[in-house]
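Morning F.,

Quick status update on the modeling queue. The single chain you submitted on Monday has been processed. Sequence for confirmation:
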Amino acid sequence: YRLLAAVYEFTHKESIQALASAVERGVSVKIVRHCKGSYHTRVKRDDIVKDESGNIVKDWIPDDTTEAAKKAIDAVGFQSLKYARVWQHDTFIERKHSAGIMHNKFIILVRNGKPVEVWTGSTNLTDGGFYGQSNVGHIVRDDDVATDYLEYWERLARDIPGRKRSSKIENDNEHGPMDELNERQQSNLEGHITSPSINVIFSPRKTTDMLQWYADQMGYAKSSVHYTAAFGVAQPLAEILNQVQCKGTPKPGLGLRRSPRIARRYKGKEAGGNLLRYVLLDNKPSEHSSEKRHHSKDGYIDYYDFKDVRENRIAFGAILPMVGDDDTNGESLTGLDTFVDYIHTKYMIVDALTEQPMVITGSANFSAASTDKNDENSLVIQGDTSVADIYFTEFMRLFDHFYSRDKYNELVANKASRKGPAWGEVVADESWLRPYFDSSSQLYRERLLLR
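Structure tokens below.
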């Protein structure tokens, strides 16, 4: 057996120990890891240090992610000096020449010289990645997909420059830059793709055309979109979210999966016009930052533009507030994460409950940097209803969890400010039921989607 990995944040003790134990069992383990930093002028006793030729001496200082991983790697103990040397000198490969960051998180299993499966997704190997944020780990047991990942991993292991061709490497078909090689391995997807299928998209790429393709898929949705955004919404997707759906006829074979009884009831009836787009954000965007971007960028679109579009149902990470020291209903965060507290996943499901769902998932945020700059990987899975059902179930679990907290916090704020309906007010009539049968409401659309 061989294990070939590519990792970004790498500090989870149990995961690192499991890989070290594999080394100690004689398994060949190779790990490409993010390795970035910057040069700082050396200073001694408040004076700039210069060499004998008068040149300023600079030291390379690793970034926090690189330094934390190195400390975690060095902390592993071995019973055998032989395997300790293998771990320190023959296991890790530093990825220094990515155009952005080496943001991958995947492991390839190789059996008898043949790649057979891949574990990938959004999960950094950290305490926060496992116990703090929402993340996904996706196993693909497919020889072709595993072979694609192996080819990509081998390029990462050679530390090929991300976008700029190295002057030390001949201009041939085997060597860099990475963006050219990635597109040569898998060209950009266009239009509608065959079903069933799995396409693997590796970054960096020469353009952001794939980001536009993802936005196009969102725009093609006939019944539903379920989309997670850890770091905001890129403009191509924001433009789609800012649009109102026109009623129309769905693509052939796109009818919602129903029980035979319900299917017979709706057979032949026109569909369309009941699209719902669920968006799950890590946090509520800053209104002040939004105003600044709108003033500085013509045509800029963000949450405050599309939040009231009738097709969009939006939630963001939140907790129930603590009211006093003895509050047993209040919640608190783990404190394990620095940048992302709630939603770290990067996936989108298009028409989840139809016969032809699409799932896009991986390490890549739906952003320009994740498309044409960072080292990333994404799976585009078309027509697999089992995969779509798993992602859909998890998405709705999280969405309902956070949406209820968003609404509770909003109602508590209303009570404090005496504006709008407040938490704790009794609804004594059937007014709460009416939106589910009002064709202009989101709850009506949701009832039809989930019936």
